[in-house]
Amino acid sequence: MPTTIEQARHALLLLGAPTSPRLVVEVHGALFDSDLSVPALVSLLREPASGLCAALNPDLTAARGLVALAEWPLERRIVTPAGQRADALAAVIRVAEFVAMRSGAGRAAHLLLRALAEGVPDGPEALDLADAARLALAAPELAAAIEAELPVRAAAAERAHALPENQQLYGVPAVPHQRGGE
Length: 182
Known about the structure:
There is one protein chain. By secondary structure, the chain is mainly α. The chain is built from nine helices and two strands; from the N terminus they run αααββαααααα. The chain is 57% helix and 7% strand.
């Protein structure tokens, strides 16, 4: 049986982008038959040797509830709303194609696809979930939103490269809002 770290890594590689620990656990459980749990995965985030880290918001704080692979470039670990939407749709495509390639995919894999379909326009009714996700990914509105976020992501990545490695992996501490000043 693979270690907890290996199980999390398999699922994140398949998903291809920062995502919630719950989805990592669900994907690995449905497709690789594991004993990975959310608490075990979250505890790995505290271990630098695990190869897992936090996704980063554009202000370089840790993106709450999102894990990533430390080996991914900073640009890939910085999350924005449209970017996250595109990443989620691309992950649905990868998971659906992975399931389609596996002959005899079990009930857990089909339940996972059904759950993922809920996040895709017309996904629950689609004959091919990957095609429905591709159509949503190609939507002009999403492409325009991603394009609008590119300067924000690029500026964040540039600032992040100047940070110490620990902050590149786990984010900078959030500074509480200060009152007064005006």
